[in-house]
Amino acid sequence: GAVVSQHPSWVICKSGTSVKIECRSLDFQATTMFWYRQFPKQSLMLMATSNEGSKATYEQGVEKDKFLINHASLTLSTLTVTSAHPEDSSFYICSARPPPGEETQYFGPGTRLLVL
Amino acid sequence: GENVEQHPSTLSVQEGDSAVIKCTYSDSASNYFPWYKQELGKRPQLIIDIRSNVGEKKDQRIAVTLNKTAKHFSLHITETQPEDSAVYFCAARTSGSARQLTFGSGTQLTVLP
Questions:
Q1: Taking CB atoms and an 8 Å limit, are B98 and A32 in contact across chains?
Q2: A15, A57, A79, B80: which has the highest count of C-beta atoms within 10 A?
Q3: Shortest Cα distance from A78 to chain B (angstroms)?
């Protein structure tokens, strides 16, 4: 199946700093990628849909100015958590919309963010 | 939008027994229903999926059934093994252009040796 990578796998930062997370589709072109957040013992909650070459679509309650998404190429989407606070600590997972003709949505390995 | 409910939240079974996890969805336009297994700290891994034009699908010890009329779908794991222990998520995807997945709340399955 298709491969999605994510970097970094974990990051610890101080409160008030910004953190950038990269999501790459390694063997196919992903015009659409999805960003999820998962708190401990909870489900995956969709934060936003990232569209190549256009603005991301954010879910209700997700601050677009705090969670900046850039999808500048067909294989890379980035999520920047700006002015991070301890409550932003979570597991962030990206996924790529499957190639034409496929159904499966492939997930990246996730990024664990800890804000001190 | 779509709403997916999943039960139970925790499930313990003896090794060799069967496990059943159930989900309901709200949007009749949803047409694709995957099940994911997630181990602690890892990404969700697809274990089986079903499209809305199929009522049942089986892959070795894992099966999924779908009742479109009732908007129910279920995961069945037979002959459970300790390595089946994980969190399982159901999901539903609508047929819109975004093709987003909406996840259930998850089921922590524990298989006791």
A1: yes
A2: A79
A3: 18
Q: To which residue do tokens 């909650």 refer? A: A45
Is-contact B18 B61, C-beta < 8 A? Answer: no
Query: What distance in Å separates residue B108's CA from the closest CA in chain A?
Result: 9
**Structure-model confidence comparison of residues B107 and B97, the more confident one:** B107
pLDDT digits (tens, 9 = 90+) for B30-48: 999 999 999 999 999 999 9
The burial of A103, by beta-carbon neighbours within 10 Å (0-12 exposed, 13-18 middle, 19 or more buried), is given as middle
In terms of C-beta density within 10 A (0-12 exposed, 13-18 middle, 19 or more buried), how is residue B71 classed?
middle
Q: Which residues in chain B are contacts of A108 at CB distance < 8 A?
A: 43
Cα–Cα distance for residue pair A49/A38, rounded to 1 Å? 16
Q: Could you tell me the pLDDT band of residue B98, with boundaries at 50, 70 and 90? A: low
Q: Do B51 and A32 touch (CB under 8 A)?
A: no
